[in-house]
Amino acid sequence: MTSIENAVGPSAWFKVERGVFKAGGRWTIAESAGLDRDLRALDPGPAKAITMDASGIERLDSTGAWLLLRTRRAMEATGRTVEALKVPERYAALLKNLEQDDKPEDRPRLPRMSPWRYRLYRIGKATVSAGQQGWRMLGYLGRVTVETGEMIMAPRKNLRFAAMVNQVEETGISALPIVGLLSFLIGVVIAYQGITQLQKFGAQMLTMDGLGIITLREMGVLMTSIIIAGRSGSAFTAHIGTMRVNQEIDAMQTMGLNTVDTLILPRIIGLVIALPLLTLYADIMGLIGGAVMCYFDLGISIPAFMRELQQALSVKALMVGLVKAPVFAFVIALVGCYEGFQVERNAASVGLLTTRSVVESVFLVIVLDAAFSVMFSVLGV
User: What is the pLDDT of residue 110?
Assistant: First the structure.
């Protein structure tokens, strides 16, 4: 028998008898150094079939479970058959989750191919993967739509008002400083570039017209949506993903809670409410930035700037930007929550899918903005 001794007595031990690997004691990180050393030197004997009986373990953490799994793989690598790995019932879930996370991916071996064929293969693989991702997200959209309909039919029963208000605060009010600062600076940049280019034609006064139209119709809602996608969409994915890693979502489902009502709808509704208000705020800050630039560069006073802006703009220009905001908010929240539920039970997956969530959200926002521009052009808006 191989054992590790401390001041109290044997704290962790294992032995091999007649084709049976037995383990007991406390297999924890505190004993991992000695266990690792002795397990590497383990000789299972001549038996071709080994049974692993770790039911005598009193305490087991992730490090001890990993050592058990590594020992089993080492025995299998020598051609032996490991018939079972028994642990106390309370540690079965830990061992199962760790085994799933540590399981190597089965990747098919590719035949040798020329570089251009390999690039073509990568393009095809990425296209198929994108199509499958889109199909899964479409199914997810259907589920959210059904749950939203049920919430509308019985709002008092399904709507979590406190959670929704909290999301409005987190995604809207807390985002005011960064949205305001960036919108102000973008207004300054648009006004400066407009002045620089229009001075060549002696049409500096048209700067206010261009600034107002660009800010209200496009840049205000687009830049706000991109900021929110990076700020709130990523937070949705990271939060829900961390809950999956910690098995909190499994616990909620075991308790009979609807994860869509509890985790998804408050975030979607909160962001749909917050983003149009943030867009209006961003429009105002962008116009203030442009007004400051025109004052210092052209000497145009604020009242004169407002009069020129009032003549150039209409309510229609403002509404074109605000109409896009709820659609963009819905897409950002949907993608953020969807990717959060795709997180696997490891920390690396949280970071990977958080990055993917931001990329997908920004991509879809820009695609939808282009689609809106084409639609408004066709409608003559």
Answer: 64
Amino acid 346: pLDDT: 74
State the distance between the two ends of the chain, measured CA to CA, in whole angstroms.
83
Looking at residue 101, what is its pLDDT? 58
In terms of domains, do 375 and 258 share one?
Answer: yes
CA–CA gap between residue 356 and residue 238 (Å, rounded):
11
Q: Determine, yes or no, domain membership for 128.
A: no
Range of the domain at 46: 2-102
184 and 97 co-located in one domain? no
Q: Give ∠ CA 291-287-165 in degrees, rounded to 5.
A: 145
Q: Show the tokens assigned to 205.
A: 């006064």
In degrees and rounded to multiples of 5, residue 277 shows phi and psi of -70, -40
Question: Do 84 and 159 have their domain in common?
Answer: no
3-state SS track over the chain: CEEEECCCCEEEEEEEECCEEEEEEEECHHHHHHHHHHHHCCCCCCCCEEEEEEEEEEEECHHHHHHHHHHHHHHHHCCCEEEEEECCHHHHHHHHHHHHHHCCCCCCCCCCCCHHHHHHHHHHHHHHHHHHHHHHHHHHHHHHHHHHHHHHHCHHHHCCHHHHHHHHHHHCHHHHHHHHHHHHHHHHHHHHHHHHHHHHHCCCCHHHHHHHHHHHHHHHHHHHHHHHHHHHHHHHHHHHHHHHHCCHHHHHHHCCCCHHHHHHHHHHHHHHHHHHHHHHHHHHHHHHHHHHHHHHHHCCCHHHHHHHHHHHCCHHHHHHHHHHHHHHHHHHHHHHHHHHHCCCCCHHHHHHHHHHHHHHHHHHHHHHHHHHHHHHHHHCC
How far is 142 from 257, CA to CA, in rounded Å?
A: 19
Contact yes or no for 290/215 (Cβ under 8 A): yes
pLDDT above 80 for 253:
no
Determine if the pTM surpasses 0.85: no
CATH number for the domain spanning 66: value is 3.30.750.24
Question: Would you say residue 111 lies in a domain?
Answer: no
How far is Cα 49 from Cα 114, in angstroms, rounded to an integer?
A: 45
